[in-house]
TrEMBL record:
SUPFAM superfamilies tied to this protein: ATPase domain of HSP90 chaperone/DNA topoisomerase II/histidine kinase
Pfam families per record: HATPase_c_2 (PF13581)
Keyword entries, A-Z: Kinase, Serine/threonine-protein kinase, Transferase
Species lineage: Bacteria, Pseudomonadati, Pseudomonadota, Alphaproteobacteria, Rhodospirillales
CDD domains documented for this protein: HATPase_RsbW-like (cd16936)
Keyword Transferase recorded: yes
Keyword Kinase belongs to the record: yes
The protein, known as: Histidine kinase/HSP90-like ATPase domain-containing protein
């Protein structure tokens, strides 16, 4: 499968994905290009670059075919872009308005799942306590060090958003990390004052449903679009 020449806005070009009837923007990942890819008439954005993952896989194709939105970015690019805000705005614009409470739930779940996928998945960071300024500085320095590792920085993170006829949204976040026992964390109670480890219990509390797949590399969340 060949991607088209990069030409549109010097960042990306439109590409109709065979067998889906949907068009993606494909190219370098900038905030402006990703925002455009998430807007009509496109069905998402696929970043070109090293270590492309089998072009467009069956999961991405299925989401596009179902009228959903998809993103596939490298870790280096995803870390620099405020994906939570871009995706939340796109969800509301493309799939209908939601009330403030539901928007807040979607934003929090996106933020937690994307952060987990990038840090603990692709960058293979641990959950070391960051309860002091010096600890936080060391942790941020470690993130920057991992991002300078071309192998880790080139790992992809995928986001697949699929609407259903029942009025729900299915949101899947996929990373290329080593995997982990996500069910263990999903089964833990939410302890709001905990220093770390709150992300998955919080998602379980806010999302309509949540499940981990592929040894914890994929988190699938469901939200009702009704208030």
């Amino acid at each position: 499968m060949q991607f088209p020449e990069i030409s549109l806005f010097d960042d990306a070009t439109a590409w109709t994905v065979p067998g889906t009837g949907g068009t993606l923007l494909v190219g370098a990942a900038t905030e402006e290009a990703v925002r455009l890819g998430l807007s009509a008439p496109y069905r998402g954005y696929f970043e070109t670059g090293p270590m492309q993952w089998n072009d467009i896989d069956s999961g991405l194709r299925a989401a596009i075919r179902a009228g959903g939105l998809v993103l596939s970015l490298t870790t280096a690019s995803a870390w620099k872009i405020d994906l939570t805000q871009l995706v939340t705005e796109a969800v509301i614009d493309r799939f209908g308005p939601v009330n403030d409470a539901r928007r807040h739930e979607i934003e929090l779940c996106l933020s937690e799942s994307l952060t987990n996928a990038l840090l603990h998945g692709n960058l293979e960071m641990d959950s070391a306590p960051r309860d002091s300024l010096s600890g936080l500085v060391r942790y941020l320095d470690q993130i920057e060090e991992r991002l300078r590792d071309s192998r880790l920085a080139a790992k992809r993170i995928d986001l697949l958003i699929t609407p259903s006829s029942s009025g729900r949204l299915r949101v899947a976040v996929r990373d290329r990390g080593p995997g982990f026992d996500a069910e263990y964390y999903l089964d833990r109670p939410l302890v709001t004052e905990a220093k770390h480890g709150r992300g998955l219990p919080l998602i379980r509390q806010l999302a309509g449903s949540v499940a981990a797949r592929d040894a914890g590399r994929t988190l699938v969340m469901s939200f009702s679009r009704a208030g």
